[in-house]
Amino acid sequence: MEQKGPHSFKRTNMVPTVLLPVCMFLLFNIIPGASSDSKPITCEAGTFTNGEPASIDCNFRTNITASELGLSVTKFPSDAPKGDTGEDVLLCRWDKEQNKYDCSIEMANYVFDNILTDHLVVRIPAVSFEQAGWYKCYFVPTEEIDPYPCELRVQARPESTSTARPESTSTGEPEESQAVLPIVLPCVIVVLVGVCIAGLVLFMRRRRANRARKSMGMELHHGSKTTEPLLPDEKQQVDKLSEVFQLSLTSLQKVVNVLEQEMQAGLHSSTQRSADTGMFRTCVSPLPTASELGYIMVFQLRSDWLTIELVIIPSSEAACPSLSFSVQKGVATGKQLFDFIADKAEQFVKENLTFLKDNRKLKKEFNKNPLQMPVAFVFAFPCKHETISKAYLTKWTKELDWKDVVCKDLKEMLQQAFKRKKRLNNLEIVAIVNDTVSTLVSAACSDPQCKVALHVENGLNACHVEYFNTTGAECPDAEKQIEVRPDIIVFVVVIIIIIIIIIIIIIIIIIIIIIIIIIIIMLVFVIDVVVLGFLVIVVVIL
C-alpha cells in the first residue's frame, strides 16, 4: 500500500502499521482509484423541507473505535467568512477506562444515537432554516486533515394553492408533443367516462336516500346550521323509529350471556368447529409482574410488515435498536417467507453488533460467536398452541396465503431458517404469541389489573385471561379452510364484465381515432394535389 495521503498518529496494533523508533502510526485507506491527494473524511447532507426530518452522515473511511481519537461535527453558516472556526454540533472523546466513546450534543435540536464502524449519523427531528449551512466531520486533535464539507439546504414548504399556467399557443410547439395527442386522448376519455359513471352512481344513491328520508318525514336541510323543529306527527315517527335501537338492561344482559356462551363454545374442543367466535389457547401463564430481568429479540409479523427489536427487561434509558421491513412481493412460499425473516435478522444483528457488545447487560452473552439470544415470535394470525413455543397456523388472514405454512409447526420452520444462517444458528425460539397477547403482556407490566387486550385494525381481535383447563380443537386441513361464497363469485363476475366492457370501449375509441387520422391525412393529400394541379395550370397559362 502506498504510504501517501493523510495520517493519524496513534498507538495501535492494527494492520497496516509502520514501526518507527518512537511510535507507530495508522494509515487511512484511500478509496481505490482515487488520487493521492484524496481526503479521507466525507459527509453527506442534502436538501430538506422545513419541519421535516433531516440527517448528516459522516464517513471516516476507517474503523472509528480502533482509532481511539476524538470526534467532532462542526457547523459553518452559509455566509461564514473564510477562516471561520464554526460551532461544534457534536463532540466525542475516547474514554480509555470504559473503552468506549463519550459523546455530547453541543447545539439544540440535534440528536445522536450511536457510532457504527466507520461512520456516524447526526439526526435532526425537524429541520429549520437556522440549521442550514456547511458541516464538517473531524478527528480530534487531527484537525489538520481537512475533510470534505457538505451543505445542508432547507427549503420552504410548498404552498397549497396552485398557480395558473400560462396558455400555450400552437405556434412553435414541437412535433413530438402533437404526436402524443392520439395516445393521451383515449386515456382522458376513459377517465372522463369513469368519472361520469361514478357520479351517476353517487347521484342515484343520493336520490334513493332522499326519497327514503322524505317517506319518513325527515327530509334533511343541507347547508343550514340549524334544523326546523319537527311537527308532532313527525316527532312521533322519529320516536317510533328510534325505539328499535334502544335496548333495555334485560336485552343487554341477553347479549352478554350469548357472547359468553359463544366464547365458551369456542374454547372447548367438542364445540370449537361449530362456534361463531374463534377462540384459541395461548399457553401464556402467568402474566408478567414487571419484576423480571433479561433480554429477548422480538420478531413481529403483521400483515406485510416485519419488525425486529431487541427488548431489555427492565427497559434501559438507552433506546433499544429496532428495524422494520416490508415483506417482498416475490415471497411466494412459506420457506421463502421464513428465509426472508432470517435474512433480515442477520442484517439486524450485523448492524447492531456494536450496541449489543457495548451494552453492559449483554456483554457476557455477546462476547461469544455465534450469537446466542432467546427469540419471541409475535405472529398476528390464528394459531393452535401445544406449548408457548410450539404453534400451528390454522389459516391465513389479511389477504395473505402461503398454503405450505398452514397446519405446520411455526417454530420448526423458523428455527430451520435460522440454522441456514451461520450467524443465527444459536437463536432459540422461546415463545410464539399473537399480537393481542403481546399487547396484554406489555400492559400487565405497568398495570397488574389489566386482564383484556384489544386490537382494532383490519379486523377486531381480543384476548383475555381465563382460569380453566381445556384443550383446543385439532388443526383443520388447509383445503377445508377455503370457502367459496356465492356473493364473492357474483362480485368477481361483475368486475370481469366491467373490465371487458372498458377494454372494448378503449379499442373502439382507438379505432375511431385511427380512422380520423387517416381521413385527415387523405384530406391533406387531396388538398395538396388540388393546389399542385392549380399551380400547374397557372404556370401553363402564364
From TrEMBL:
GO CC, one annotated term? cytosol
Ranges annotated as spanning the membrane: 179-204, 488-513, 519-541
At the top level, the lineage of the source is Eukaryota
Q: Where is the signal peptide?
A: 1-36
EC number(s) stated in the UniProt entry for this protein = 2.7.1.-
Q: Which residues form a coiled coil?
A: none
Keywords, A to Z, come to:
ATP-binding, Glycolysis, Kinase, Membrane, Nucleotide-binding, Signal, Transferase, Transmembrane, Transmembrane helix
Extract the GO molecular function terms from the UniProt entry: ATP binding; D-glucose binding; fructokinase activity; glucokinase activity
Domain Hexokinase N-terminal, first and last residues per copy: 238-444
Q: Does the keyword Nucleotide-binding apply?
A: yes
Q: In which pathway does it act?
A: Carbohydrate metabolism; hexose metabolism; Carbohydrate degradation; glycolysis; D-glyceraldehyde 3-phosphate and glycerone phosphate from D-glucose: step 1/4
The UniProt entry's sequence similarity note says:
Belongs to the hexokinase family.
Q: What is this protein called?
A: Phosphotransferase
Q: Which organism is it from?
A: Littorina saxatilis
